[in-house]
Amino acid sequence: MSTKESQVTFTFTNDIIKEALKSQFSNPKNKITEETVELICDISKALVTEAALRSAKQASMENKNLVNLEHVESILSQLMMDMV
């Protein structure tokens, strides 16, 4: 089996992350630092990358060429436990 390298890129916009966090604040005076937003973006990227890799591996183990929702669902519980 040959291995292929992919140059997939993705971004998490700081503004979207910041607004998502602000929407959960009960006090409108609460603030969030840019450093915190950047850290959450980095964590989100790592989580998405790991989920994609595990889902692709699961599909490969099933001799599938396409990753579908079932592959993602099958790796989620272990992924969440590994992130704790």
UniProtKB/TrEMBL annotation:
Gene3D superfamilies reported in the protein's UniProt record: 6.10.130.30
Top-level taxon in the UniProt lineage: Eukaryota
| Subcellular locations according to the entry | Nucleus
Q: Name one GO molecular function term.
A: DNA binding
Q: Which GO terms describe its biological process?
A: DNA repair; kinetochore assembly; replication fork processing; resolution of meiotic recombination intermediates
Q: Which family does it belong to?
A: Belongs to the CENP-X/MHF2 family.
Q: What name is this protein filed under?
A: Centromere protein X
Which organism was this protein described from? Brassicogethes aeneus (Rape pollen beetle)
